[in-house]
Amino acid sequence: MLDVAMKKRPLIVGLAVLSGVFLFFWLLVFVTAGMMGRTSSFPIGEKVGVIEVTGVIASSKLINERIIRFKEDSSIKAVVLRVDSPGGGVGPSQEIYAEVKKLVAVKPVVVSMGSVAASGGYYIAAPAGKILANPGTITGSIGVIMEFTNIKELLDKIGLSNQVVKSGQHKDIGSPIRPMTEADRKILQSMIDDVHLQFITAVAEGRNIDPDKVRLLADGRIYSGRQALEAGLVDQLGNLQDAIAVAGTMAGIKDTPRVVYPPREKAPFLEYFVEETISQVRQELHEQSAGGLKYLWSGVK
After folding, report:
1. When you count CB atoms within 10 A of the terminal residue's CB, does the N or C end of the chain come out lower?
2. What angle (nearest 5°) sits at the alpha carbon of residue 177, between those of residues 172 and 182?
3. Is there a contact between 124 and 81 (Cβ–Cβ < 8 Å)?
4. What is the pTM (predicted TM-score) of this model?
5. Which residues are catalytic?
């Protein structure tokens, strides 16, 4: 019996050590919870997901991966698309637009416009169930532009020439070393008009506005958030927190929604777990504090 007890003792000691480490970890989480900045929330309960689209839209890959991830996450009941972008490429904007439409078919989507959400930035916002902008947000710019610089005269002055061998008349369309022909211009204008029509159609469908009215708005001009509200391009004025609250209401989430952001790319699992845990603790402490304040105010007559 003594031998058996001695053999079990290392296991008991090991379990005790592991338990102590675990308790120390949670104590550390509580102590440092208030010292951390914004992170993704702990993946428990009903949540509102926030996806940020910032800067020039040059690629759709990362944004679409995040949209798909949040769409497939059953604990995320609504998504806020935070757009702070002047636009970008037609192709990437249309790819994000397509995924936003798919997301809208599954769960509520609210767009929160930051300082600017214009051109392609507005394109990707159009399918959302609700669009919120700040009064001074720069938005609109519903249009398409293609620019060419011609340096033929400069090359002539410095004595440089260029020889082109091409398979067809328009293969070098838009070339900077020869004047643009009328035929070239007609081809390019036809393409621009077609893409512009696609933009108008997307806005008309997403915002449920008559296409003829959208055409009047889609001459490339920009609008402030307040002007966009008057024109029907956005639904209401408000910031990101307002958009999160609207998304929570649309999803039927009671009380303050839990907010989750996509994790940093390629973050180590342990680091991600720690950040998720700390964020959850901060959320709980905030809710407890808010509840206490509410009780104190409700007791004042």
Report:
1. C
2. 60
3. yes
4. 0.73
5. 119, 171
